[in-house]
Amino acid sequence: MRIVQYALVILALVFVGCATGRQGSKVQETQQLQSRIADLEKELQQKDEEIWNLKNELGKAEEGLGKTKINESNLSVNVKLSIKEIQTALKKAGFYNGAIDGKAGKNTNKAIMEFQKANGLKADGIVGKKTSEKLKKYLE
User: Fold this and answer.
1) Per residue in 66-92, pLDDT tens?
2) pTM, whole model, 2 decimals?
3) Domain span including residue 128
4) In the chain, how many domains are there?
5) How many helices (H) and strands (E) does the chain have?
């Protein structure tokens, strides 16, 4: 009888140990997945910036404008305005709420497109000649 009780106690301890081990591995797996999500979000942000760069380069090629100015973040813009100047003009026009940091990202691109819509321009997010001319008025 005592042997059976000991066996049950040992069996219960083994079972609890297995459950705890499984729970610990789930916590570890959750942490790994959260880390992977953070990495993927960073990668997505980088890809968004690459797409923005490519859109602007394409706009330059399509419009056949002169020189391409490259700012500190190596972002090509097909006009004679830097990203900081674009952000400043958009902020003064009431379309941009972010920091004027010279980094073109989703918020800057969204503000450009909203500015273009409001000014009867093609809302493509590309700061071409017409958009540049309208933005320069806010820098004076």
Assistant:
1) 443 434 343 434 447 889 999 999 999
2) 0.48
3) 2-136
4) 1
5) 4, 2
